[in-house]
Amino acid sequence: MSNGIVYLVGAGPGDPSLITLRGVECLKKADVVVYDYLANELLLSHAPASAERIYAGKIGGRHNQGQDEINSLLVAKGRDGKIVVRLKGGDPFVFGRGGEECEALRDAGIPFEVIPGVTAAVGASAYSGIPLTHRDITASVAFVTGQEGKGKEESNIDWDRLSLGGGTVVFYMGVTTLRNNMQRMMTHGRSPDTPVALVRWATTPCQQVLVGTLADIADKAESSGFKPPAVTIVGEVVALREKLQWFDRRPLCGKKIIVTRAAEQAGEFSGSLAARGATVLECPTIRLAEPESWQLLDLAIRDLPSYNWVVLTSGNAVRYFFQRMNTLGADARALANCRICAVGPKTADEIRSFGIKPDLIPADYTAEGVVHEFSRLDMQNMRVLFPRADRARNVIPSELKRMGAHVDSPVAYRNIFPERLPPETLFALEKRSVDCITFTSSSTVQNLAAMLGEELMLDMLKGVVVASIGPITSKSCRDLGLKVDIEPASYTLAALAAALEAHFS
Fold this sequence. Notes:
Elements: E1 5-10, H1 21-28, E2 32-35, E3 52-55, E4 58-59, E5 62-63, H2 67-79, E6 83-88, H3 98-107, E7 112-115, H4 120-128, E8 141-145, H5 159-164, E9 168-172, H6 178-187, E10 195-200, E11 208-213, H7 217-224, E12 230-234, H8 241-244, E13 256-259, H9 263-275, E14 279-282, E15 287-289, H10 295-302, E16 309-312, H11 315-327, E17 339-342, H12 345-352, H13 367-374, E18 383-385, E19 388-389, H14 395-402, E20 406-408, E21 411-416, H15 423-430, E22 436-439, H16 442-452, H17 454-460, E23 465-468, H18 471-479, H19 493-504
Parallel strand pairs: 1-6, 1-7, 2-3, 2-6, 8-9, 13-14, 13-22, 16-17, 16-18, 18-20, 19-21, 22-23
Antiparallel strand pairs: 4-5, 9-12, 10-11, 10-12, 15-21
């Protein structure tokens, strides 16, 4: 079999959005991904579902596989004709042992390519607000390993030049040898008052920064229980952090928030919270599915010219409705005789994406708001199509019928709840490490209660801030015994994110 190819891809320092476009391209075509402890596992989602995923990092603080084993694995997979991505934290050629892996591949005749990544020092510098160089302070920077290898009798580091050069020094993997390394720098002439910063889990929501001096940073690290992985930045530039820090000043920094939306919907809202500094745990309590039968919706779509109004109350309803229209060979022209009601700006945006401008957007983004708007119109003998979720409230069809309208409300999609919570979410709730949980519909809170049981849910959410998107969802929370702490004035995800920011600020 012809040889494959191995891509050594720098995964960056932790934030999954910091990987290069070329790195993502390689992951998308991978047959095999061999990944490290420091490579964010979220990056594995870029690889095809069929790709083999092999963990070559640490388990219990010890390496899962030795370097020779990893080299042999890469060679073997390459010889099998596979496209292999070796996903390495940071940059493959900066303390990543990428050079050794490339040597093994070259010796075996396996083609390879190296895709650089944001190395930990650069990521830690940017996200802690500590520039590694500065025109008024220093024009040089050195990257140094904090651990030269076990059993090594003599150091390869020129401690005199490193200590007396005056430039910024960044130690990788140096937490366990911190006291020794700081002492060596002082012994070789660096001032004990030189500022030092430890940056742990740089660029991630878990980032921690500890600032001190050469003389006291080791004591501070021990007393605070500061653990690896971290880089150590030594130099006068550390003093700039007080002025330039930005990442850990974001309003939700350090807050752990559970998002209970359906997996396919959670991304944008989760991203908005993460951009504000939160650690987001996605815990889908809803899974969207097609209706058990399309019969009623299909009949309505084929009869669209006879309807006066189509009422769409969510982005999900819009997507499922138009997808079904497309399946039946219909397009926007079938709605020529219909006026469109969109409940909320996000629903309206979804409708516009299909080339249609909504005729009515209620000021109140609830079923009651829809009813109020239609009460101003003459609905006698109007035909209304209301494509809905299987568990949608009956307010709209029942009230419009009272006004004299003829309403058809076929199911366009179903809300199904998963059987269990993601293990990381359950673990966080058990540890009492969750700060807030968000509910964006009655179904999300009702399904969580069904998954956990009402008593256990109430116990696990003691002391957790409950954020609800609007009054209907809030009522469902209170009916189950939950106290609602946050409810935005406008019932949108953007407003909910802003309300969370205001609450925790």
